[in-house]
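User: Can you help me understand a structure? I only have the sequence.
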Amino acid sequence: MKQTEIRQQGYKALIDSLGVANTLRFLQQLGVGYGDYTQERHQWLDQLTMADFQEFARQKSSEPNA
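Assistant: Let's start by predicting it. Here is the structure, written out as tokens:
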């Protein structure tokens, strides 16, 4: 199946299920992202040490809803 066919069937399924107005509202929520996630992730992840991660894990495991 081609990408255009998948997209068309997807739109049809959404419209059949949600109606036109709610399909448009749903699609508006799926805004296109921007930037380079991989590059941005490395900017903060490369600075994270094992000790930082272990402390974060300890804090999370001691939270009441963990």
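Now, to help you interpret it: Helices lie at 3-29, 37-45, 50-62. The chain is about 75% helix and 0% strand. Let me know which part you'd like to focus on.
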